[in-house]
Each structure stands twice: as C-alpha cells, then as structure tokens.
Amino acid sequence: MIKLVIMGEPVPQGRPRFKRIGKFVQTYDPPKSKAYKALVKRQALEQWHREPLQGALACKVKVYRSIQKSGSKREKVLKEAGKIRPTKKPDVDNYFKGVTDPLTGIVWEDDALIVESTISKYYSDNPRVEVEIEELEQ
C-alpha cells in the first residue's frame, strides 16, 4: 500500500473552458483547477521517489474539506468526528479527477491503469486529500 497526502483545501476538477483563436477552438482548465493540479504535482514529487507504476491499480481517495465557520459547536464536533459528512456539491468524482490526473507520469504511467476506486468526502480542521494506491496482481 502506497500513501500520498496532499495538504491544502481540496479543489475539484472544474468544467473545461473554451476560447476561440481564429477558426480554432482551444480548451483549457479553469485557473483554480490548474493551480490545484500544480500543487498536487509538487507535493507528489516530494513524496514519490520511484518510477511510475505500470500495472493494474486500486486507488482510494479520501477528501477532507474544511469545516464551515457557521453552525453550532455540536455540529462542528460531529463533522470532525465523521458523523456528519459533506453531502453538498462538488461531487466526489470531480475531486477524484482533480487529484488523479496530475499524478499521471509521476505515480503511474497513465490513470487508465486504475481499475478499482473508492472516493470519500469528510470534514476536517486539517483540509487535505489522502491517496492510497495498491498494485493489483495480474
């Protein structure tokens, strides 16, 4: 089991943006998504010191979002304990994409190698994303 921890407020993958250049249309990441992907790459490079993985992989992603300032103390305690979980947008799959895409070429050769995944959202006073990778036998 391999574990990476990406510190900082998680940012989901945003919808691609488009701009016209003459007769051509170019797509690009929204600035917030682009900045977060760069952060994920930087932190992954600090933690990963091996060649990229090449076989089938299982990937577990745990997203820990900040606890909102509003709300009762009781509610905050329940959120920190994992009794109350984030049920509002953004969707878990958008977080997954925002974390796994920048790990391509660093942790794995291609994110298509991920054949099994689990994604969870939690609240925490310590916002981060934890990525656990397991190489599956073939």
Describe the structure.
There is one protein chain. With 138 residues, the protein is α+β, with helices and mostly antiparallel strands. The chain is 27% helix and 33% strand. The chain contains three helices and six strands; from the N terminus they run βββαβααββ. The chain has a four-stranded mixed sheet, covered by helices on one side. The longest helix is centred in the N-terminal third of the chain and has 17 residues. The two termini are 16 Å apart.
Helix content, binned percent:
25-40%
Q: State Rg.
A: 17 Å
Q: Compute the number of strand runs.
A: 6
Q: What strand order characterises the main sheet?
A: 1-6-4-5
Beta-strand percent range? 25-35%
- What kind of sheet is the major sheet? 4 strands, mixed
- What's the average pLDDT? 92
Helix and strand run: EEEHEHHEE
Structural class: alpha+beta
* Poorly predicted regions: none
The first-to-last residue Cα distance is: 16 Å
Helix tally equals: 3
Shape: globular
Identify the notable features of this structure and list them briefly.
138 residues; alpha+beta; 4-stranded mixed sheet; two-stranded antiparallel sheet; 3 helices; 33% strand
In short:
By secondary structure, the chain is α+β, with helices and mostly antiparallel strands.
